Amino acid sequence: MILYFLAAVFADAGLSFEAAGQAKPVQQTVYFHQDTLRLVVGQEDSLRATAVPDAPILWEAPAAIPVIASIAPPANSGRYGKVYLVKGRKVGKTKVIVQVGAAKDTCWVYVSPRILVKEVRLNKDTVRLKAGRTQMLQAGITPQNATDPTLNWMNMGKATVTPSATNRTEALVTAAVVTDTTLIIAEAKDGSKCRDTCVVITHVPLDSIRLNKDTLRVDIGSKDTLRAMVYPSQATNRSLNWTVKGKAELTASSETDTVALIAAALTPDTAYVIVEAKDSSDCRDTCVVITRKPGDDATVEVNDQSIYASEGYVHIRSGKPVSLRIYTILGALYRHEERLVGDHVIALPRGLYIVVLNHTAKKIMVR
């Protein structure tokens, strides 16, 4: 009865009962995601294929002697998966075939010779940097069409080297924070053993020199000592030059440049001791050496005198006539007046000066 009813329904729809029970077969296809794959000898890359509808895929590479390329499933994939690894073995042309039932597709594999790097040449043989500074190093690769132009960057020392994220032949060198000599090595990754080197010399410059005294008063025939403090203590070159302008005599210590023995002049005198760095930092300091007769007390003169600087000027006050001398930091006489008394404002260019009123000296900075 049920069969009769179904037959009547399909008859009303214009279909036979037998035809309605048969599904139209779906055509099986399989295809590669690319038509060709180009490799160099020793290079490995992946190939992907898709079956529609989804089905296990048979992979094969026609046997050839010598073997141009070999195929294998990835370690985490089965034999009939969608991805295979292809490795170039010999120079030549071959093909990889995938098949699902009667459906097939082909990908041609072209294997080219591996072009090794013949020379690596850095743009600098030596780099001199201040502590913490940086410098970009660039490498030239020969030939330009080398298969693998990437480099391994290595350092032997305290300076560091960081390969560029955007350029395989560049690296950023960062100097050490202390005096150091580092060897930077750029070596080809392709096994050719081509390399070049650069020496990075880290230089820690002097920031300042400070004498332990601005003014030194020495009796005729006596001696005293000046000491220089150098900052920072880890400066690469801490050597100093000592000079004196005047009748006093100076002898630098043979053990350390930071100590000097001052011998007073044979008569009352004002001399200037200048200590400066031997490196290119242009750091210096100055001390006024006043040679006086035994028993002279220059502190009496200070009671009614004042010296101070303001922007563009030096202000001087003296309650009695005095001799005024203004010297540059290098000891050159900038201005000289006799019998100066009262309040005075003197214009000065920016810089460091030594102002002397009789036997009283003061170092000032005019801004």
From TrEMBL:
Looking up Gene3D superfamilies in the UniProt record yields:
2.60.40.1080
Q: What is this protein called?
A: Bacterial group 2 Ig-like protein
What is the protein's species of origin?
Answer: Tannerella forsythia (Bacteroides forsythus)
